Write a sequence for this structure.
């Protein structure tokens, strides 16, 4: 089994999923390159996932992004095997989830993973407290310990005082806090979140993202976070993988994807992004200047352009210099460069942009 | 062209032989195993006798209190409780107390038996499409076959009396509880079940924690229908010796006593309404968690 303390990384290897009555019959055709449309039209099977390879960072947040129907839910359900793969491996630490027998799988789900769902999926006949303890109850832990551990997370997500309410009495945002508390109470090293915040209003959603980011600083779980929203992906993801029609079209850090979109599909996504919040100072700093040339305020490596611009304008300075954690200078920043990098470039195949 | 107007039926002699064969076969079976079968039903018979004795020998005010108490706990509705008490007082006043107690006892035992047998069958059906496709047609036959027809083999096997009556009533009344248990479990929200799976529930835990509680209101509707059908069967079952409100009705038909039939019929209606309102109110209370929806 996986180490309880440190959260394990997750490696998805050559994962294929075909929905239909005889998936095994078509797996070779798909491996030879048959497309989703062809498989559906000719053989009536749905290609859910095609040759997925992702290394999800241990103790970090892996975001999987894509439009509706791109296979995100299918992918995340392979990690706790709510869906069985047609081919491939899902390695958690060094254990292949796909090879587990039912008893091992049950243990794995009880102790290694917890999940938050898009439609909350709370037990409607149970109160907030009784929902939150569910994972512990299933494990057979004593009621007093269940309640004690659940109460901690109920308080932490801001539901104190609502313990004996039924889900129907709560707003969507509060219901999802219950979903989050239920998952966190399980204290599993892996947290699976399938569009956990997508059903919430934008403000509440930001709020929940903040809750998650704050929590993650303490708990350092391996989080797999599904979203169809690029802003959410960029805000939360240490790593992002983008799915289309069941295939990974690009993966990397948020900044990498925004600055080097792999194709027109991704460009169309990233065009509207607020780059100031994504691009980091070290990406655009000028390293050609002499490293003794410490002009303007010092800005730490890893700062976003938006923050850097604020520091520079607050300091009324058109220049700044980037330093590493030890304070060693790495390069210099010019407010002009900062601002022009924050502005979305016009697409290169747009003829007007050529002039 | 004669065969167009005269259906080309099996010739009379072979048909007679066929029916005779079935009958004598069944009779042989009865002679061979009747005793064992009767013995097997002995505990049920004791249960029936005990329950009837309890209803008849307990002082009537206590019975009224007991039934009113159950109605209160199930429905928490003052009007239903008052209606229950008034109905029972009227029944007693018109001298139908004993028959009513016998009928209530019979219905109680039939309902318990239907629940004990029906719910496990319903659960099994909900887990297997194949079982569902086998059981459903059987339930259709049980519900549409005229009830007199299956009185015959029951009587051949067990004679006349309480137990054959009980079996006939249960056969007639059990389909709704089976069907609605199956349906209730199949209708449980897939998302919620998936969540239960994701937290590592065993299949017993998902049944106990998710499927049963969420199917309970639907199952309650099945129990309600089962009770109503058992009551409707009481008159028919009186033909094979089940005592209670059905017997005077049967007597009234045979002798054209209009008022006797009417009074006993109204008593059946009265307890039907009590059972119906109480069990429905209970079913509604089970769904209380759904009522207070966030604005
Ligand atoms: N049980 C299933 N049977 C057949 N097709 C399915 C099934 N589940 C998902 N799919 C198909 O797989 C594709 C990916 O679905 P899903 O993973 O739910 O997408 P997403 O979560 O990204 O919206 C869709 O085309 C969907 O229709
Ligand atoms: Mg989805």
């Amino acid at each position: 089994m996986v180490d309880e303390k440190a959260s394990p990384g997750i490696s998805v290897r050559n994962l294929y999923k075909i929905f239909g009555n005889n998936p095994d019959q078509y797996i070779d055709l798909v491996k030879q390159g048959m497309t989703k449309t062809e498989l559906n039209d000719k053989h009536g099977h749905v290609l859910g996932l095609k040759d997925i390879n992702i290394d999800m960072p241990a103790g970090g947040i892996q975001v999987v992004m894509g439009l509706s129907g791109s296979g995100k839910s299918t992918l995340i359900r392979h990690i706790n095997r709510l869906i069985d793969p047609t081919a491939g491996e899902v390695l958690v630490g060094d254990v292949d989830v796909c090879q587990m027998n039912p008893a091992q799988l049950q243990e794995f789900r009880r102790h290694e993973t917890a999940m938050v769902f898009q439609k909350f999926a709370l037990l409607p006949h149970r109160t907030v407290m009784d929902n939150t303890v569910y994972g512990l109850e299933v494990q057979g832990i004593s009621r007093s310990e269940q309640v004690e551990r659940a109460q901690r997370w109920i308080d932490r997500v801001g539901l104190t005082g609502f313990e004996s309410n039924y889900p129907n009495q709560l707003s969507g945002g509060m219901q999802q806090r219950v979903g989050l508390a239920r998952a966190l109470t399980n204290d599993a090293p892996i947290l699976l979140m399938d569009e956990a915040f997508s059903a919430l209003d934008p403000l509440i959603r930001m709020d929940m993202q903040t809750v998650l980011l704050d929590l993650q600083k303490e708990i350092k779980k391996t989080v797999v976070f599904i979203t169809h929203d690029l802003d959410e992906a960029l805000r939360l993801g240490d790593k992002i993988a983008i799915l289309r029609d069941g295939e990974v079209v690009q993966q990397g850090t948020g900044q990498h994807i925004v600055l080097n979109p792999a194709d027109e599909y991704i460009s169309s996504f990233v065009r509207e992004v607020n780059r100031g919040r994504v691009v980091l100072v070290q990406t655009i700093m000028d390293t050609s200047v002499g490293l003794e040339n410490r002009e303007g305020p010092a800005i730490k490596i890893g700062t976003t352009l938006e923050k850097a611009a604020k520091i520079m304008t607050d300091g009324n300075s058109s220049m700044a210099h980037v330093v590493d954690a030890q304070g060693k200078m790495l390069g210099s920043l010019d407010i002009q460069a900062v601002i022009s990098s924050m502005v979305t470039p016009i697409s290169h195949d747009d003829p007007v942009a050529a002039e | 062209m004669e065969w167009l107007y005269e259906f080309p039926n099996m010739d009379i002699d072979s048909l007679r032989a066929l029916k005779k064969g079935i009958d004598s076969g069944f009779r042989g079976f009865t002679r061979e195993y009747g005793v064992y079968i009767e013995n097997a039903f002995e505990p049920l018979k004791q249960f029936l006798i005990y329950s009837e004795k309890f209803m008849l020998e307990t002082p009537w005010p206590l019975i009224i209190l007991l039934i009113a108490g159950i109605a209160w706990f199930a429905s928490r509705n003052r009007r239903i409780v008052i209606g229950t008490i008034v109905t029972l007082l009227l029944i007693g006043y018109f001298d139908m107390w004993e028959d009513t107690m016998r009928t209530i006892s019979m219905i109680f035992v039939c309902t318990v038996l239907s629940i004990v047998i029906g719910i496990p069958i319903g659960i099994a059906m909900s887990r297997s499409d194949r079982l569902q496709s086998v059981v459903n047609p059987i339930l259709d036959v049980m519900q549409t076959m005229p009830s007199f027809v299956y009185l015959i083999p029951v009587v051949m096997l067990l004679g006349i009396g309480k137990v054959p009556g009980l079996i006939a009533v249960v056969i007639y009344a059990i389909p709704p509880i089976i069907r609605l248990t199956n349906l209730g479990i199949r209708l449980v929200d897939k998302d919620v079940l998936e969540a239960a799976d994701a937290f590592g529930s065993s299949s017993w835990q998902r049944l106990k924690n998710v499927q049963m509680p969420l199917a309970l209101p639907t199952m309650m509707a099945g129990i309600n229908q089962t009770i109503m059908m058992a009551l409707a069967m009481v008159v028919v079952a009186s033909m094979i010796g089940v005592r209670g409100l059905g017997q005077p009705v049967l007597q009234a038909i045979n002798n054209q006593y209009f008022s006797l039939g009417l009074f006993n019929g109204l008593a059946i209606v009265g307890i039907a309404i009590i059972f119906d309102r109480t069990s429905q109110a209970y079913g509604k209370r089970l769904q209380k968690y759904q009522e207070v929806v966030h604005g």
In short: Chain B touches chain A at residues 189, 191-192, 194-202, 205, 209-210, 213-214, 289-294 (CB under 8 Å). The mean pLDDT of chain B is 92.
